[in-house]
Amino acid sequence: MALVPTWRLRAAFARRLSDMYGTEVPAYTTLLEVAGQINDEVAGRDPDAGRLGSISRVTAERHGAIRVGTPGELRQAAQVFAALGMHPVGFYDLRDGDIGAVPVVSTAFRPTDTDELDRNPFRVFTSLLTASDRRFFDADLESRLTAFLARRRLFPPELLELAEQAEKADGLDEPAAERFLTLAVDAFRLSTEPVDRAWYAELERISAVAADIGGVAATHVNHLTPRVLDIDALYRRMGERGITMIDRIQGPPRWDGPDVLLRQTSFRALAEPRAFREPDGRVTSGALRVRFGEVEARGIALTRAGRARYDALTAETDRRMAEHPDADRGQSARALWQRDFPRTEHQLAVERQAFFTYHPVPDRPRDGHHPPADLAGLLTGGWLTARPIVYEDFLPRSAAGIFHSNLTGEGTRDARRTGTRYDAHRLSAAIDRPVLDPFALYAAQQDRSLRQALGTLGADAALRALDDAPDM
């Protein structure tokens, strides 16, 4: 019997998860409808709309978000995603920002091969509760939280067994694939089990995110995010539909230069009916606000140098807003970007501020000259063309900002205490899989294309210069 290959499992899972989430959160269906309308409009008027991914890819594109409580739960989630051809990429620490109490570290599970990304670029931003961090949890609460989490089971053994089979065989036969997809979607469905009101409230005083992870019996999709080609238009149109959006769009400002990195926004978390178990044992009705509808617009991946420039501009915008709190943040950021950020893709490429794939120009008139030895000369002289590499990852500040904008309160964090040390290496050890460096993935993709293009051109001097260039 023929196997259902990994990428088809991933595409089917993303599609079924989206259908399930639309049933649970009806405003998400409205978000998909508006995003689809805007994408069609942009594609209709802009012949270059597919520059950062084909329209079919953008339309199918989703990223999900889940939250887990222990390294063991994260390890099992990693196994499920491995069956879908998704690997942990990037380390995000949301604990130390200036935005609320968010006691989690995160990674994103996604495809890494460019062909797999083109087929279906589904991603899941996955956060791990840091229960041992004394800035948030004292020893007694950590002990009780750890005991609570140890009693629950997020993923049934059958699902994990099928996930292991799918990873080893790069797919599953039809009956096993259907069973795997059913179990996988069910694992991320909102639980109907009553929530212990007193326990949830105790955790919520620390952090609403902590309560959403450690105060319930199962994990669930926290948000599911479509991609849109004009996020500013979507923000306005959702408001016109009567859906309350968060205060602003997170990430780079809208400006007249290249779109880079990631811009995100969301509608505010909606009150969803939930059953509660009271201290006297009664089950009552209530509501929680934990799930919301996020949407994103993706731009060009930046090198480490480009990212440092982005971070510096963000910090300068923060400084200016602190001095003039009534100023328009978008205008302030836009003025800084127009002054200090590369205004064209050509600039981004020659200054090595962003990642591109490079391609030889086959019909360039040959005048007997050898190709120049520098990238700027090759691009300006028409020897090479540069195609931007789309940013496939996330911004910790933006993630924390959206998390916080949908919380029920500020929570508490004792800055006098020392936090538990976490980094990509510790997270890799916890899940027994390497957490990959996104910069290295983009750089490898760029390097392969550039070497191939220079080899085709016979640009030996440029190849030698490439070997001597510093890492990006």
Write up what this structure looks like.
The chain has 472 residues and is of the alpha+beta class. Helices cover 47% and strands 16% of the residues. The strands form five sheets. A five-stranded mixed beta sheet has the order 3-4-5-2-8. It has three domains: 3-299 and 389-435, Uncharacterised protein PF07063, DUF1338 (2,3-Dihydroxybiphenyl 1,2-Dioxygenase, domain 1); 302-342, no CATH class; 355-388 and 437-472, no CATH class. The model has no long low-confidence stretch (mean pLDDT 89). α1 (6-24) packs across α2 (26-45).
Strand order of the largest sheet: 3-4-5-2-8
Q: What gross morphology would you assign? A: globular
Task: Give the strand tally.
Answer: 14
The tally of structural domains comes to 3
Task: Evaluate the radius of gyration.
Answer: 23 Å
User: Strand percentage, roughly?
Assistant: 15-25%
Structural class: alpha+beta
CATH superfamily grouping of the largest domain: Uncharacterised protein PF07063, DUF1338
**Helix segment tally:** 19
Classify the helix fraction into a percent range: 40-55%
Average residue-wise pLDDT: 89
In the CATH scheme, what's the topology name of the largest domain? 2,3-Dihydroxybiphenyl 1,2-Dioxygenase, domain 1
Q: Could you name the ranges where pLDDT drops below 50 across 5 or more consecutive residues? A: none
At CATH level 2, the architecture of the largest domain is Roll
Level-1 CATH class name of the largest domain: Alpha Beta
Family: Belongs to the 2-oxoadipate dioxygenase/decarboxylase family.
EC number: 1.13.11.93
Enzyme class: oxidoreductase
Pfam families: HGLS
